[in-house]
Design brief:
- With 88 residues, the chain is an alpha+beta fold.
- The chain has one helix and four strands; from the N terminus they run E-E-E-H-E.
- It is elongated, with a radius of gyration of 16 Å.
């Protein structure tokens, strides 16, 4: 089993990439829910294309998993749910 690496990305998504010792690369991206299927399909294609062009990873070796989270389930520090409107 390979070692996963996580890093924050723009928009406060979490990206985890892992190569399990074979030729496949698994990317798990945690993001706010709400994007359309069409947008996700374009994203998958664009990411695979860019990885192929940039670092020569075969497109068929790029496995992508999106984990969608409701905004109220995020906290970006200080024990606060920044997306939730505080009660009045």
């Amino acid at each position: 089993m390979g070692s996963g690496r996580s890093c924050p990305s723009p928009g406060r998504s979490i990206v985890t990439a892992d190569s399990n010792g074979s030729n496949d690369y698994r990317l798990q991206i945690t993001l706010n829910s709400g994007r359309s299927t069409e947008l996700k399909q374009r994203f998958y294609k664009t990411l695979a294309d860019r990885l192929h062009e940039g670092v020569k990873i075969r497109k068929e070796d790029v496995l992508i998993n999106l984990v969608e989270i409701s905004k109220e389930n995020w906290s970006f520090g200080n024990g606060e749910a920044q997306y939730v409107t505080p009660p009045k």
